Amino acid sequence: MENSGTIRIGNENFDFPIIEGIEGERALDTRTLRAKSGCITFDEGYGNTGSCLSEISFINGEKGILRHRGYPIEQLAEHSSFLETAYLVIYGQLPTADKLAAFCAEVRNHSSIHTGMRHHFEGFPSNAHPMAILSSMLNSLGAYYPEMSSNNREQDLAHFDESAALLISKVRTIAAMTFRMKQGLPFVFPDHSRRYAENFLHMMFSEPYNDYQDTSGASNALDLFLLLHADHEQNCSTSTVRMVASGGANLFASVSAGVCALWGPSHGGANMAVIKMLEEIHAAGDDGSRFIKDAKEGKAKLMGFGHRVYKNYDPRAKILGKSSERVLEGLGINDPLLDIAKHLERAALEDEYFVKRKLYPNVDFYSGILLKAIGIPVEMFTVMFAIGRMPGWIANWKEIAENSKSRIHRPRQVYTGSAIRDYLKVDER
Ligand code: SDX
Fold it and tell me: What gap in Å lies between CA 338 and CA 357, rounded to an integer?
């Protein structure tokens, strides 16, 4: 049959329905595979496994397409804002002007954190990694809103709109406070007259009698950076959020887990690793050729390159590449790292090793150059990714929480350990 597939195991055939997505992608529905055949699938890294049906984002990795609720990322990048795209990702449609104004007001009204939370910062060593601070602060944020973090889905959903706006707002405040604490600087109160990204830069960089002034378009560039990170299907951190949500955990605990997953250098930590790689290349007086040689010999990864899904150019990388150039021009900065990055990109895209493996620049390749130009310290880069990804994590939590049929995520395994089986018969005692 056209809409079914057959798996032959031994001498038996097992038929399974095929689920077809809106964009024509097809999935073999193997939810009855073990019951029918006694077999499970094995797909380390889940490269061939769909964990859910989702209406939020769509990626065509072969063609380099990314859409949020059907809208192409290029159009959102050109015409939308981070908060409007956040609303779209979370609620499924672009807001009317009134709804957007109400959403922005709700986010603005939640800009401050409970004074009790300020003391948490005193407990962290000044060299604590910002991602460690962020994940713990987001989870403890739930303690201040027990009515939204009850782990009773009906109750948590009843408070969803407020907890979503609250998290989008306070993740930014906590990030800025983390930076100030680590610098030994006093916290800066949010300024409700400023838009989302500019308010963040104000909380990061304003000083008494010297308020941060955005004279170079940095806040627009940051807003674009955040928009481009809003969601990205079932990546490592979003899948983690869904995994935690699937057990019934509240939104705060789930996004806190997402922060931990994002931290790794293969995922969101790559934006920090790219800048460190470019700085090493610059310090060595190399143009990147030696680094490419090491990458080809498996001695290093070309950070910011490659992707599990994109086997074409990551559309976000293209946009960020142009945006970082514009910001550097606007600031009158001639950053040698940008030239090295562009050389690396050209060299890799012409090199058989990368061409054969379809390795292209991903979202992290240029984002660090943009953040560095805005004045964000490198160790805060992955925190910036988390701020941008917050709407996507929230939307995915909501999709699980609202689905009364959603099941706890509990993969199977193939056991390859010891077969001793008898405690008393262990010879080497
Ligand atoms: C993000 O999933 C998402 O959507 C993530 C993300 C999001 O928005 O949430 O897009 C954000 O995490 C982007 C990726 C950021 N990470 C990096 O830039 C780190 C560098 N990239 C690699 O670590 C790697 O490309 C991954 C982790 C991104 C993808 O790894 P895969 O899919 O497991 O690919 P693989 O390791 O199986 O690689 C296939 C081949 C291997 O060579 P062979 O074994 O075939 O000889 O390609 C090689 C790899 O060694 N390869 C690289 C490489 N990436 C893959 N070689 C050199 N440099 C690289 N960057």
Answer: 24
pLDDT number for residue 275: 95
User: Residue 47 Cα, ligand 1 centroid: separation in angstroms?
Assistant: 12
The Å distance, Cα 204 to ligand 1 centre, comes to 32
> Is 240 in the same domain as 278?
no
Residues labelled as active-site residues: 307, 364
429 pLDDT higher than 60:
no
Q: Are 176 and 119 in contact (CB under 8 A)?
A: no
Lowest mean pLDDT among 216-220, 227-231, 264-268: 216-220
Q: What is the pLDDT of residues 275-298, one digit of tens each?
A: 999 999 999 998 888 889 999 999
Residues 216 and 110 reside in one and the same domain: yes
Q: What is the pLDDT of residue 81?
A: 98
Protein residues with CB under 6 Å of any ligand 1 atom: 45, 232, 235, 266-268, 270, 295, 301-309, 357, 359, 362-364
- Output the domain CATH number for residue 354: 1.10.230.10
Which residues have a Cβ under 8 Å from the Cβ of 164 and sit 6 or more positions away? 90, 251, 394, 398
Q: Which domain holds residue 17?
A: 4-50
